[in-house]
Amino acid sequence: MTARVGVVTFPGSLDDGDAARAVRIAGAEPVRLWHGDPDLHGVDAVVLPGGFSYGDYLRCGAIARFAPVMETIVDAAQGGLPVLGICNGFQILCEAHLLPGALTRNQHLHFRNRDQVLRIESAGTAWTNAFQPGQEVLIPVKNGEGCYVADTATLDQLEAEGRVVARYVGGNPNGSQRDIAAIANAAGNVVGIMPHPEHAVEALTGPSLDGLGFFTSVLKHLVGAPA
Amino acid sequence: MPRVVVDVMLKPEILDPQGQAVANALPRLGVGDVASVRIGRRIEIEFTGEPDLDRAREIADKLLANPVIEDFTVRLVEADETADARS
Question: What CATH number corresponds to the domain at position A164?
Answer without folding.
Answer: 3.40.50.880
